[in-house]
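Below is how a single chain appears once it has passed through the pipeline. First comes the sequence as given, then the structure the pipeline wrote out for it. We keep one example in the README because the format questions we get most often are answered faster by looking than by reading.
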Amino acid sequence: MNIILVYDVRKKRVQKVHKLLKRYLNWVQNSVFEGELTYGQLEAMKIDIIKIMKKDEDSMIIYTLGSLKYARREIIGVEKNTTDNLI
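Resulting structure:
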């Protein structure tokens, strides 16, 4: 499955999160990674991320794309901005 991952973490955890995510995905922009993972790799990555993140301070959004027709958005931690006004 194709993954787009976007994160916003406190400065003191940015380097750890970045280093971890580079093990699983391709870094494409500040706080943005993408790539292809198996379901098992995705679950392992989420377990590793949760060990570093502070859910009450940090935010991570993982878009899981089987195809563009069926996209799923998953939020881990604090949602920084709602999508109620998106068309």
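The chain has two helices and five strands.

See the next section for the split statistics.
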